[in-house]
Amino acid sequence: MQILPFYLLCDESGSMTGDPIEAINSALPELHHEISTNPTVADKTRFCLIGFSDDAKVLQPLVDLSDIEEVPALAAGGLTSYGAAFRELLRCVEADVASLKAQGHEVYRPVAFFLSDGIPTDDGWEQDHKDLLGSKYAPKIIAFGIGDAEASTIGQVANFRAFMQQDSTVSPAKALREFASSLTRSIVRSASSIPADGGSGFTLAVDETVPGFSTVSLDKL
Question: Running DSSP on this structure, what letter comes out for residue 53?
């Protein structure tokens, strides 16, 4: 079977309190339900949730969404450390792809959705980012910035597509609901394009525009 592993990395820094953290937490079960009840998607995807702040931790190991009874909630606290997120993602991707291959699956290039509401406080995260993108199974990264995140940094993180909250007067809750809606559409459409006959015509389908967000140019450095 052809499997698309996808990872959702969520900033859990102290600034992610109130509306943002509540909005993401309320969106996760919705995301789970939408994909797990779509047979053409559920059997072709595996989902992993990673939360990061000072450190990073796997809240939901890579698994078939239909096997998840309750999606773990995020818990705000600490400062924003991008390096921790990239190191944990690299560890997970390498281990997960190896496990899927050992089970006899063909594995498509992993996809990572990265969400942050702040500026990274850790020095040297760029090297962790380079290590991730230089790895054998480097994921395609779609990055979303809200709140105090900087467009230039979000554009540097992404290697496929990047978005920023467009209007600071729009509540983070509304912006994150739009993000969750776009994320669901992207995963459903991408997984649905995986050929049933084992062909290689997989297309990563991610909206070029997301309501409430503006498109950010990717940093090619």
Answer: S
| 2-215 CATH fold | Rossmann fold (3.40.50)
Nearest by Cα to 21 from 83, 72, 88, 63: 72
Q: What is the distance between the alpha carbons of residues 219 and 221, in angstroms, rounded to a whole number?
A: 6
Answer whether 12's CB lies under 8 Å from 74's CB.
Answer: yes
In angstroms, how far is CA 70 from the centroid of its own chain?
18
Give the mean model confidence (pLDDT) for residues 87-109: 96
- The ranges assigned to domains in the chain are 2-215
Element (H, E) at 9: strand 2-11
First to last CA, the chain: 36
Confidence (pTM): 0.92
